[in-house]
């Protein structure tokens, strides 16, 4: 017995005991939401799923925990009804749930239906749906290819989808210009949601680097750097979040850079944009925690991709602007072209395919991430030995800085008497 594809890719589970087989679980489906004759796209209908006195084998891929016989007697399967909407689907026109539809096992007389979110965990029932921007090359391409190899559904974006490689033929391509307006980017996120009815993982991979010293930065180029690397990510996320919150699930992955905390000369705008992305993502993770939405910051080190060639090309264009040339920073242009030779000289070169696999594993809890007890406020994933080492060195420098200036930063508090006076005025005494 399988849930038809119109149902959500997650069901609920509670209890970790393991003594009853899947075939002992009693339930069936009340409604299969195929469109009725004459129904048009956008039609909504209520769907239901509840218990019946029938014994049906549980699909093996659900991987639900078994329940002890004594505990089984206290359980009851409660129906949960949600709305479904007729949308365009790769599996033909059919009803696809726009909200999560769950079968929830509830201890009788202990909790009510609206409290179930406190006792269940989600488990996979079918493939994940990924939305990966910047998937036409580099780490984005490697991640999309790996997700497809795991039989997941992948939506990929590129500024020109004609440039997408043949290895992504199983993915759904969407054209996306990150220079678009807030309204257009939010609408794009909503459009992407309609393809499979939901998105499980959004990976904000697309971006670029601008070579230029601070003194010679052009205002339009600086705004463009932030629009693509920061603002577009925010706008796309805004388009996706209503669905993520309604389903109380989802993962957002913002791909940053080790340069966000260890910026170098000549790429100040890029480093600043990634630092802004990091700070926004830190706040976002806290804002979305009540809905169980996971947020990650990925900070890669050096991986040989075409990012560096693109940055060099943009640097040449900036350098050609005669009105901004000072002649003082000649050596800071063309740094991107020297990164690969330098890393080869010290034998420190990342493998983008391995990095993509590690990203996939951290998102899914598989492979090297299986059993890893990641605390909810551990939202950073470093990729590459250089990234880890540079991060550790930066933290050491920060620690030394903090320790050395402690007598200064600790001397700026209000006098205790003044604090007590303010507390009294605020009614806190």
From TrEMBL:
Q: Which residues form the signal peptide?
A: none
> Which organism encodes this protein?
Bondarzewia mesenterica
- ATP-binding: present as a keyword of the record? no
Coiled-coil stretches are: none
User: Could you tell me which residue ranges the Ketoreductase domain spans?
Assistant: 128-303
- Name of this protein: Ketoreductase domain-containing protein
Q: Keywords in alphabetical order, please.
A: NADP, Oxidoreductase
SMART domains reported in the protein's UniProt record = PKS_KR
Q: Which family does it belong to?
A: Belongs to the short-chain dehydrogenases/reductases (SDR) family.
Record-level Gene Ontology MF annotations? oxidoreductase activity
Keyword Nucleotidyltransferase in the entry? The reply is: no
């Amino acid at each position: 017995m399988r849930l038809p594809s119109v149902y959500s890719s997650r069901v609920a589970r509670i209890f970790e005991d393991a003594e009853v087989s899947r075939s002992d679980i009693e339930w069936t489906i009340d409604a299969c939401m195929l469109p009725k004759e004459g129904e048009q796209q956008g039609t909504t209908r209520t769907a239901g799923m509840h218990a019946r006195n029938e014994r049906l084998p549980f699909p093996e891929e659900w991987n639900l925990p078994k329940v002890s016989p004594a505990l089984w007697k206290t359980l009851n399967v409660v129906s949960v009804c949600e709305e479904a909407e007729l949308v365009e689907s790769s599996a033909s026109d059919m009803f696809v749930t726009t909200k999560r539809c769950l079968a929830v096992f509830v201890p009788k007389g202990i909790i009510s239906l609206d409290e179930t979110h406190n006792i269940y965990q989600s488990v996979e029932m079918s493939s994940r749906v990924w939305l990966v921007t910047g998937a036409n090359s580099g780490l984005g391409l490697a991640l999309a290819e790996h997700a497809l190899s795991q039989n997941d559904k992948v939506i990929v974006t590129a500024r020109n989808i004609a440039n997408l490689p043949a290895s992504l033929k199983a993915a759904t391509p969407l054209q996306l210009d990150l220079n678009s307006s807030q309204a257009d980017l939010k609408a794009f996120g909503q459009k992407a949601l309609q393809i499979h009815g939901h998105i499980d993982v959004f990976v904000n991979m697309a971006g670029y680097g601008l070579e230029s010293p601070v003194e010679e930065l052009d205002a339009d180029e600086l705004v463009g750097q932030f629009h693509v690397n920061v603002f577009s990510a925010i706008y796309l996320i805004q388009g996706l979040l209503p669905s993520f919150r309604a389903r109380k699930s989802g993962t957002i992955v913002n791909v940053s850079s080790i340069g966000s905390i260890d910026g170098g000369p000549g790429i100040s705008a890029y480093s600043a944009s990634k630092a802004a992305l990091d700070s926004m993502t830190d706040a976002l993770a806290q804002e979305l925690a009540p809905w169980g939405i996971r947020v990650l910051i990925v900070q890669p080190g050096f991986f040989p991709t075409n990012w560096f060639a693109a940055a060099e090309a943009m640097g040449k264009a900036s350098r050609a602007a005669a009105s901004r040339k000072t002649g003082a920073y000649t050596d800071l242009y063309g740094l991107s072209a020297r990164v690969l030779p330098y890393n080869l000289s010290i034998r420190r070169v990342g493998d983008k395919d391995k990095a993509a696999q590690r990203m996939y594993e951290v998102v899914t809890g598989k492979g090297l991430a299986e059993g890893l007890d990641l605390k909810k406020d551990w939202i950073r994933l470093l990729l590459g030995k250089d990234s880890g080492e540079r991060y550790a060195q930066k933290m050491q420098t920060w620690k030394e800085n903090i320790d050395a200036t402690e007598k200064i930063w600790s001397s700026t508090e209000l006098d205790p008497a003044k604090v007590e006076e303010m507390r009294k005025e605020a009614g806190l005494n």
